[in-house]
Amino acid sequence: MQSKKNLPAHLSVTAGAVALALGLMAAAPVAVAQSNTTTTIYGEVKLAAGATVVLQNLDTGVQRTLTPDAAGRFQANSMPPGRYQLRLMRNGKVEATQEVEALVGNGVEANFGVTNTLDTVTVSGAAKRIDVSNTNNGVVFTAKELKALPVAADVAAVIQLTPGVVRGTNGQYGNAPSIAGSGQSENSFYVNGFPITNILTQVGASELPFGAIGNMQVLSGGYGAEFGRSTGGVVNITTKSGGNKFEVGGKLSWIPGSLKGKQYDTYYPNTGEHPPTDGKLQYWNQGNESSSKVVGLYAGGPVIPNKLFAFVALEQTRSESESIAMPTSLGVSSPTGWSKSDSKVDRYLAKLDYNLTDDHHFELTKLYDKTTSRSQAFGFNYSTLTHDNTPGNGRQTYVNCCGSGSAPGADISIFKYTGYLSDDLTVTAVYGDSRTKHSRTPEGYNASLAQTSSAVSARVPGLSYAQPQTVTGSLVDPESGDRQKGLRLDIEYKLGQHSLRGGIDRLNVNSVVGNSLAGGYRWTYRKATDPNRAITGAFETPFQGGGYGTQGYYVSKDIDTNLARPSGVQAAQYIQDHWQLSDRVLLDLGLRREQFTNYTSNGDAFISQRNMIAPRLGATWDFAGDGSLKLFANAGRYHLPVPSNLSSNMAAPLTRTGELFTYTGVDANGAPTGLHAISKPYSANNAYGQSRNALEVTAIDLKPLSQDEFSLGLEKALNKSLVVGASFLYRRLNDTNDDTCDQRPIDAWAEKNHVDASHWGGFQCAIMNPGRDNNLWIDFLDGKGLRRVDISAAEWGTPKPARKYAALNLFAEHPFRDGWYGKLTYTLSTLKGNMEGQTDTLGGGDVALTVSDDHKELMYNAYGYLPSDHRHAIKAYGFVQITPEVTVGANVSLISGGPRNCLGELPDALHDGTAGSYGGAYFYCNGKPSPRGSLGRLPWTAQLDMNLAYMPAAVKGLSLKADVFNLLNRRSVTRYNENREDGGAVTETYLQVAGRTGPRSVRLTAEYNYAF
Known about the structure:
The chain is mostly beta strands. The protein contains eight helices and 59 strands. It has a 22-stranded antiparallel beta barrel. The protein has a five-stranded mixed beta sheet with strand order 9-14-15-12-13. It starts with 8 loop residues before the first helix and ends with a strand.
């Protein structure tokens, strides 16, 4: 550990102040600190003299021995979650024992009290009912609970059980949740301490076999300084590990299409403006079908008892679906009107745990996640509502692709070391490497064949122009993929009543993202009316080129590649002081410093956000001193990096050139022969593969997206069977980063400052802080290079971003006791503002490139209730063990509807040539202001999921289970099409149902587990 004389000056002063405080408050109890990736076990022995406390993991047998201090207190930090036996030892004999279950990110208090009765000593142990050692807002789900509850087998579905969580409103981002008012890209996901959040977009995360989850913690606020890069929630998963007992098992799960409810047909709404379509069928959905099957295997056990353990989980999901792919407006029939698709999801997790000694623990985790899907179109006839088996176009194969909400995939290796260097000093280190590939490959595609394009009028008579490349247009570039490497070091040190925790981490992210022409390039055949006339960009005429050029025939080799290589570095340092101020009061004082840097494809930094300071303050009060009533509060600042996909949009090199040749023939693949160049590669829009100048991409001194939050609450154990609680959470968005594309303020600046902008190609948008002064570097191509252009917030005209979330959460929980477990939560919340975050319901799927701030007029009337505002939310889940063989589980969700809007075109009076160019994306309706969220509410959604599990005593380890999701088949509307007008008229689809809750479905599962 670094000596005090080598510490930086400000840290040396801090250390001195801490030492002085320790001297003054030596009588206070020891502080409790736990990492949110491990757990803490602590407690007190009433008679400490000669006593030791042995903690033994009941699965692995690994032990840790602690000596209580003079006051009898002991504490074990950074312990793996699991079941532990605590033994109080004195003079080599066991005086008392107790068992506890330690959950990720939580602390477990276990005290040993002594009672003297004549010549005997009776020692008892007791664990407190409420965790008074942390201040965060969160929920932990164990593997046992996840197996018993009727919940879909994915992380996103489990997150929905948490108070304050709602489903994201933009389907382009998949099933990524909105946590406590945040956007869908504002959450962080971890497995065994390593981030698995989508590297490119920050939307969603890689998945693991569902049965491999040991603990899953969902934090919706108040998390400590060790966590960052999130203004939404933190999802923290620890996986299962092998133990001293061999265990093998497998499961078969089936969601049959025959037991699913039918989907509703989609009808055109009655607009009163479109008689041919009003009220008519648009999509026939009743024939849509889907089914899926899951096969899983797992095994765990000792390689070397008490030393080396292994756990492996394998899971494969196969799904099939058929659905309509054409609206009635396209006609009675279509050769591509019906779509069939199938997908295969392969996931595995392998974990090795090695205990060099009881004090030195090593872990290796391998995580693999790959989604392969295939689709094929067939003919469909609306007059008969039938489809044929004639393929309508090429079959497509997708691997971890495509779109913001697609499965990001994973091939991850995580190495972790934990060292208990003394009772007071613990060190943990994590290194991880993640990589994945993305591809879209049409069936029969040959990447070595160039595309050819030849109009009849451009063909030389007598020559055959073959087109063997069956794929036209662009494909995901074959190099596309993401990689992330991360390193983290944490140190915990107990110093009297202080438990100090500090650390550093660094993530290096790299991606290759973009599209290129299928086959690499395209031969486009052309003919000049006059062979002797010069062609733009050419240095010779076709006639001068010879061959068929003398007759005007020539060919262009076209290259169209938009391939970016964005990268970034995210680094942080933090320190956290868990200060046990008194027997009952714990202060949690943290400070986090972060640095975010985004680089262009050329390696130039275009976003460099440094020295972002995020204080985190928390407190808990064990009111009665017995763990029966906890009062807590916390406050903090949180920052969010810009995802690297923004570079692929704003600073990507675009190559769009054509190189002209004359030719003397055409080969069997349709490619020209006898080439003679009459031009160099030429681009009409100067797209030669160069990136934008990094200085022109972002505003000078760009501030990061940040959010402040405050919360307080209480938890009360009414008895051993009932815990209740209440909490209040408030969040406020301070700044955000978004693209602005309004050239008018720049033109006004140029005119005011007498700058010749006649050669300038125009403003290509830049990343700014909406509502603030934003100053840019711009090269007006007048020979004077980059100029600093200072434009005030008033001149840009966009307001400061506003997003305010306030929520009151109430809960009642019955711990598993007397054969049943249950939890009921109610959330009363409000979410209001003019900005959703990095993701936007109104625009496309590009994260951090929303439509909102492109022009100031898009923000007129934009303040109001945001799409994720659901005023009331009631959630209840639990399970009952009816008999030793039969268990029933239930999951109920009642959510009030979100706000409704009417979007339309900008009134003519506000047009000025640039304003109004976004069609029907404005908060105006029929020419009048239509403030955000002012058109009432969507209906409530209500869903009941239930399951029944049978575990026959005659076949130990066998479980047969049926889960029914949306048992009552309630099909509530979750979204309408809110765009009233575009192109000067009311749209055909205004107020059309655009989303509903899914129909009833049934999942049948057989699982067998054998331990020996």
